[in-house]
Amino acid sequence: VMLQALAIVKQKCPRPRSNIGKLFVLIVVSIVYSYYTTAKINLMDISILHKVKEAITSQENFNSKESYRKQLAEMISSVLREIQPLGGNKSIINEEWANKLAAVVEKLDPRISLLEKSTWDYSARLKKMGPAPKSPGIKRHVCPEVYFGNQYNHPWNQHGMEPEQCDYVPAFKTVLTAVLPATRWTSERVNFIAGQIRLSYDIPIVAIVASKAGIDKNIKNFAIKEIGKDDDEAVFMNEVIGDIKTPYVLLATNMMHFNNQSSLQRLVRVLDEIKHVQVAGGSARDLEGFWINGCIQQRMAIYEAVYAMGYYYSKFECMYCDDLLTPFVTTVQLIKDMPFTKGLKDKVLFRDWFATVKISGSLTLSCPDVMFYVSEHPRMTEEEWKTMAQIWHLEKISSYDENVYTFSCESIGITCTNPLNIISSYLLPPCCKSIMEKYMSYIVDYGRDNNLPFELQSGSALGAMKMGGYLPWDYDTDFVFECKDFNKWMEANKVLRPKGCNLIVIGQNKYMQMNCHYFFLELYCHTYNTTSQQYLPEAYQNMPTTIKYANRTVVSSANPGLHSRNRIGFDNLKHAAHWRTLKVTKEGAARGGYDNPGRWNKCKDSKHHSCLDKYPGDGSLPFVRPFLNL
């Protein structure tokens, strides 16, 4: 059943947010699939549910509030209690179990709905259904919509979804305020936009301008806020929005025109009815007539960010997005809770704000039927992206316009001076990793140039076996060589010292350490005067086993997989923080050196995109191909 459900999982949840999300979706879809195919339940299904319960109650694997975790655990437990007595027996899956588990999925990610709704769950009602009843728990600020069908206003279809007549919503002027971030607009443009909005809506309008000169003060309910030369743009905007009395605010970024194509009621209606959504925007048409939906997906991982236009999920004919390139409506409270960052302005200000909104768990929608008229579609310069890189510690950014920008560690404020402190919570930045790999190449090249046998050892061998390179939570590099060559290896200082590294003897004729600026490499010798290649067939002993490491081939143990299994012990393919950052019990040491493989230390800054505990404790692809969707 689990295997049969895989195809459905890919269709329903191509990009779940975490391993737990994948696990839940797989189980839910499996059980739903079982129900509809009258599949049978067995002991394997019971054991899987036990694992789900354990995963949900684990502090390390589920970093939500404790009360929320307990709520989800109880939902799983209630299904488990009903299923458990049936373990090993032939029983038809109960539809109620499937619905309960589907509810858990929807709680974990509200964008995914696997439930069959018992009530009408669409953006509008059909004309024959009559007026929409008042919905318990929904405070409506605008009237619901009714759909008049696809022949209404045919063939143009610029009408069809129309607001109902209702008498139980407040006046729209008490619902939403339009804010014009107009510090770089001409006074004529400010007056025109304010006038156009006033033709459609009797709502408060606030313009943030560099100068009041030329602004029409006769426009009704129009406030002009002049920013001082020394005022911070972000702080000033926070203060202006903080004083707004309506619950919703329109941020009319880059606006050039306004008419009834820009339905503000539609955006407020979406925010009213979909509680997990806090921001709603629309599409945009520029001065050349080019239209975009404005919906951006953004992901940050391993000191890299990827922005792409498009969507994975939708609801009420709106796209779920991580960022918007268009004007948008949000709540005043959200901006009070997550104010714009001091020192930022224009496009960078909004990229940063949407990134903050995303990590807070609030969701964003773009409704492409709501079209705004803008002067141009936002394009970020390299310097603007560099500011984002400095704020969010990003060495590489792939922009939504398909440009790619790379930044040095120095230019974005990343330092490699204390790698042990970094790896106690975070993945090692790629620039730091490349420094270590460069140091490693000094040893590899010296050994090859001087015909000195050596092999990767310990964590370095494990990294090569699992990921084809340096583990991004490692602290050093390990080699083993033959003791008879000890003095020859010490002669490497002639090559190393001009490069800023130095070999020192720690254990006489046994162990040496290569110290460089930020990292060190460990070289051990053994007295057997042979390498592990002796375990290869005699015909292969003169051709040592090599393995990919940092984009080159390096001599490894004769059997890299066997070496790592025996050297690291149980669950060697699962990940664990560096031993210098852990406390290991005697029992853990007996199992190979780790108490809880697959578990990470709790991160110091849970919002950082490269916290170790944001990544699975198993598998290589999330680290070597973090943006790969399979």
Automatic annotation (TrEMBL):
It comes from the Eukaryota. The chain crosses the membrane at residues 20-36. Residues 448-494 form the LicD/FKTN/FKRP nucleotidyltransferase domain. The keyword rRNA processing does not apply. GO terms for biological process: glycoprotein metabolic process. InterPro entries: LicD/FKTN/FKRP_NTP_transf, LicD_transferase. The keyword Transmembrane applies. Keywords: Membrane, Transmembrane, Transmembrane helix. Pfam families: LicD. This is LicD/FKTN/FKRP nucleotidyltransferase domain-containing protein.
